[in-house]
Amino acid sequence: MTLSEAKQAVVEDFSMYDEWLDKYEYLIELGKKPGPFPESSKTDEKLIKGCQSRVWLDSKVENGKVIFSADSDAIITKGIISLLIGVYSGRTAEEIADDDFAWLDEIGLRENLSPTRSNGLVSMIETIKKIANSLRDNG
Fold this sequence. Notes:
By secondary structure, the chain is mainly alpha-helical. The chain has one domain (3-138): Sufe protein. Chain: A (Alpha-Beta Complex). Helix content is 56%, strand content 12%. The protein is built from seven helices and two strands, in the order ααββααααα. Strand 1 and strand 2 form a beta hairpin. Helix 1 runs antiparallel to helix 3 (75-88), helix 2 (20-32) packs across helix 3 and helix 3 packs parallel to helix 7 (115-138). The model has no long low-confidence stretch (mean pLDDT 93).
């Protein structure tokens, strides 16, 4: 699935729900799905700064693709980071760095989060882009 197709799939998933309460439930379900995140990876350098909740993001490169894994101590926040890594994990650093993340506005995520969660979302996006830019520049 291309990056464009992955983003469109999320937009379609969110469009199935009329109420934001249902969309929050969807995020909670996403937060329950990720595989185990090793306790040894829950370090300060993997902690995303600017999130009210604690969010850890790890990345590695396999076959030229950036693979992300993440965890959070808050279930909705874990759902949000799961949504992001579901779209961007397995992409090249160039694809991630060059993306505008506009699909998040298309699903209305930023405008329907509390200000602190919205700030956390911005921090997650900035961290993902920073990792991708670093890998692209050093790759």
